[in-house]
Design brief:
- This protein folds into 2 domains: 42 residues; 109 residues, Glutaredoxin (3-Layer(aba) Sandwich).
- The protein has a 5-stranded mixed sheet with strand order 3-2-1-4-5, with helices on both faces.
- It is elongated and about 90 Å long.
- By secondary structure, the protein is of the alpha/beta class.
- A hairpin with a 5-residue loop joins strand 4 and strand 5.
- The protein is built from 5 helices and 5 strands; from the N terminus they run H-H-E-H-E-E-H-E-E-H.
- This is Thioredoxin domain-containing protein.
- Keywords: Membrane, Transmembrane, Transmembrane helix.
- It comes from Actinoplanes sandaracinus.
């Protein structure tokens, strides 16, 4: 009986040692992932994309006017609120306005306001925003000038009034 108890104790100790090695390996992996995420979080869009990849020919304007593009999703309450606010102030914005989405239902948020609605998944992938609603400004040549998440109507107003928001 004593031999069985001793064997169980040795197996228990061996299991504990193996568990410690596994936890150590997991902690090392988490540390590496944390370092990689820190590098990604501190990179800017300019680091990730060349200027050529941030140019959208479809957004160019021969008349020299800038284009403000609000990227939205249908099931996003903030997207709907920002879109409806943009529709209210559309006449006060210097430049062209557009709504970019993959969801045709978003068009009703700005119906009858003169805001162009682009329902285009391919273009949405090319623009590649990380969060919605995001406001992007494109120059007359179709080159992206900046992008900002519009978390509130006040944010949206300040971005549109300034034309070029301060860096985040």
């Amino acid at each position: 009986m004593q031999n069985v108890i001793n064997s169980l104790a040795v197996l228990g100790l061996l299991g504990t040692v193996i568990s410690l090695f596994a936890v150590s390996a997991l902690l090392r992996m988490v540390s590496q992932l944390r370092q990689e995420l820190t590098v990604l979080a501190n990179s800017t869009p300019a680091d990730s994309f060349s200027a050529a990849s941030r140019r959208v020919e479809r957004f160019a304007d021969a008349d020299g006017r800038a284009l403000f593009v609000l990227v939205v999703e249908e099931h996003c309450h903030n997207c709907e609120a920002r879109s409806r606010h943009l529709a209210e102030i559309a006449g006060q914005v210097p430049g062209r306005l557009a709504l970019l989405t993959a969801d045709p239902g978003c068009a009703e948020w700005v119906a009858g306001t003169g805001i162009a609605v682009m329902v285009d998944s391919k273009l949405l992938g090319q623009v590649a925003v990380g969060a919605t609603p995001t406001l992007l400004k494109y120059g007359a040549d179709g080159a992206e000038q900046w992008r900002r998440v519009a978390g509130s109507d006040a944010d949206l107003d300040s971005y549109l009034e300034a034309g070029a928001p301060a860096s985040v």
